[in-house]
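Chain A, query sequence.
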Amino acid sequence: MGQEPGGNGEARTVTVTGTGWAEAPPDLMLVSVGVECRAESVEGAYASVEEGLAAVGSVLRSHGIAPDDIRSAGLAVRADLAWRDGEGQKLVGYVASSSLTVRLRDLVSASSVISGAVGAAGDNVRLNNLQLVLSDDAAVRAEAREAAWHDALRTAMQYAALASATLGRVLSVTDRPPQAGPVPLAGMQRTSASEGVAVEPGTNRIEAIVTATWALEQ
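Chain A, predicted structure.
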């Protein structure tokens, strides 16, 4: 929170920064499911990954996931090296990996979908990431901005009163996005493989920061 009152005959102003936030339950889960396979040849590793991804994709489609909500997210093949005494590093094969990014729109069935996808390709499957988001956060962002504006207005009114003045017209408004940081996945618990992943969406918080300048009047 800052303030910049004018002085020395110049136009008097006050500048303050307000913060606000709003919450809403998420309605979309983003899941990254990967497959990693080892083989003696590049072709073998690649073929195994392709087979594993096909199995994962088949399970996802069997749960009613639309093709538009399943997207391939990269392919990598690297040498698999191992250290052997007296011989140093030796090439023992190749490792291929790829993943699918999936949008789950039904959070109620998300647990069974994830369990099915993870079990589709056995030990070669990697559950890379899970994230709960809002498919459309426009209304929540508007609510957060309004809260930030009222926070700034209250502070400006307080400073005006302390300066024996009143607030005049608004001279400028700047909307500053908050710094991005890690967003915890609220309400998610990992249980045994047979039970799957228990998902409780909780709420997502969206923050807003606004800086405004008012003229001060006597």
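The chain has two domains: 13-25+137-217, 28-133. The domain at 28-133 is CATH 3.30.70.2970 (Alpha-Beta Plaits).
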